[in-house]
From TrEMBL:
<dbReference type="InterPro" id="IPR058240">
    <property type="entry name" value="rSAM_sf"/>
</dbReference>
<feature type="domain" description="Radical SAM core">
    <location>
        <begin position="30"/>
        <end position="253"/>
    </location>
</feature>
<dbReference type="GO" id="GO:0046872">
    <property type="term" value="F:metal ion binding"/>
</dbReference>
<dbReference type="InterPro" id="IPR013785">
    <property type="entry name" value="Aldolase_TIM"/>
</dbReference>
<keyword id="KW-0411">Iron-sulfur</keyword>
<dbReference type="GO" id="GO:0051536">
    <property type="term" value="F:iron-sulfur cluster binding"/>
</dbReference>
<dbReference type="GO" id="GO:0003824">
    <property type="term" value="F:catalytic activity"/>
</dbReference>
<keyword id="KW-0408">Iron</keyword>
<dbReference type="InterPro" id="IPR050377">
    <property type="entry name" value="Radical_SAM_PqqE_MftC-like"/>
</dbReference>
<dbReference type="InterPro" id="IPR007197">
    <property type="entry name" value="rSAM"/>
</dbReference>
<dbReference type="Pfam" id="PF04055">
    <property type="entry name" value="Radical_SAM"/>
</dbReference>
<keyword id="KW-0479">Metal-binding</keyword>
<keyword id="KW-0949">S-adenosyl-L-methionine</keyword>
<protein>
    <submittedName>
        <fullName>Radical SAM protein</fullName>
    </submittedName>
</protein>
Length: 365
């Protein structure tokens, strides 16, 4: 049976996580998260103008020894899945290869979100231990890539990243994804530049590389509100995705994020919430060199910080923290990918949810 990798609601019903899901649904605190986002570093080798984490880069670090210890602590906590992400570029930390080995050999699922420039230096571990690797590309040509994802000298490393993806496609045991964030920018001289015309070309390239999926996403602003785009751009993206549908097969999927769905529905940048506690915060959390945060949407927010993983053990942080310090009705009016999961957890608490599934299929809830 094929499952939608972005159907986060259905993932709540998997049997191995069900006891913790029930506990979170009831409003109780969990003994440990099921999923952890981990930023190994705040350094990045690219200089993307639209980077949502730009203000958080180059702030603090984990030593390789502490990063390895964190991986061991995640295993001890019975975390089921870890996403190596950022913040910075996760593969830029020389300790990430060891983290991949520790987590993978312990049987945890591992996802990696990367800009792809250092895949070759981490190829063996990525190929062997990564459940999935998603490469942020946002372009279908070197020229457009250089506009939106330049390196620190202003150059396009598009060809290098494509070559790295081909290496991984030939060696991987997990899934490889090509991520395309639809972006538009107003230049100082009044010109508007956009990457939206390259959606089809990028999807074709992803298919040619040997990727397992191509994901299209809408852009966030600094406050995580979905950036609205003119209707003609949205129509252009839709036409290209319709044409790209011919590429679909059992080995290649087209995936549309919830942010793109928000644009299609003209939902607007604000997503109101009428609940005051995020139950999902008991099921997943974010660990960075600058602190442990309630969730990735609040990366760098001191009001959502629940501990310091540079100095403290994760078990102590989790047991001693209050994940209820964030009030979604007040603090999370942006688009949240797990809003529907929170609503489903309410239904589970009320006894109106679905029955648990018979088997696990994807721990990244």
């Amino acid at each position: 049976m094929t499952h939608d990798r972005l159907d986060l609601v259905s993932k709540l019903y998997q049997p191995s996580g069900w006891p913790r899901v029930l506990r979170a649904a009831s409003g109780a605190t969990s003994e440990a998260p099921l999923v952890v986002d981990l930023d190994p570093t705040t350094f990045c080798d690219l200089a993307c103008p639209e980077c949502i984490s730009g203000k958080l880069l180059n702030q603090g670090r984990f030593t390789p020894e502490r990063l390895a210890a964190l991986a061991e602590e995640l295993v001890a906590l019975s975390v089921r899945a870890v996403v190596l992400i950022g913040g910075g570029e996760p593969l830029a930390h020389r300790g990430t290869r060891r983290v991949l080995r520790i987590l993978g050999e312990a049987g945890l699922a591992v996802g990696v979100v990367t800009n792809g420039t250092m895949i070759d230096k981490n190829l063996d571990e990525l190929a062997r231990y990564a459940t999935w690797v998603r490469v942020s590309m946002d372009a279908g040509t070197a020229e457009t890539y250089g506009l939106f994802r330049p390196d620190r000298k202003g150059r396009s490393v598009f060809d290098k990243v494509v070559a790295n993806m081909r290496l991984l496609a030939g060696a991987k045991t997990g899934a490889l994804g090509y991520s395309f964030l639809v972006m538009t920018r107003r230049e100082p001289d009044g010109r508007t530049v956009s990457n939206h015309t390259e959606v089809l070309r990028a999807a074709e390239l992803a298919h040619d590389i040997g990727c397992d999926y191509f994901e299209t996403k809408a852009m966030f602003d600094d406050e995580h509100h979905v950036v609205q785009v003119p209707q003609d751009i949205l129509d252009s993206v839709e036409r290209q995705l319709a044409e790209a549908a011919r590429l679909r097969s059992d080995s290649f999927q087209l995936v549309n994020s919830s942010t793109l769905t928000s644009l299609r529905r003209h939902s607007g940048p604000v997503q109101p919430k009428d609940y005051h506690r995020c139950r999902v915060a008991e099921l997943r959390t974010l660990i960075t060199p600058s602190g442990v945060y309630v969730c990735a949407y609040h990366r760098g927010n001191p009001l959502a910080r629940i501990g310091d993983a540079v100095t403290d053990d994760l078990t102590d942080i989790w047991q001693g923290s209050d994940r209820g310090i964030v009030d979604p009705s007040r603090d999370c009016r942006f688009h949240c990918a797990r809003h529907r999961s929170n609503l489903e957890l309410e239904r589970i608490a009320e006894g109106t949810g679905a029955a648990p599934l018979d088997e696990d299929y994807d721990p990244f809830l």
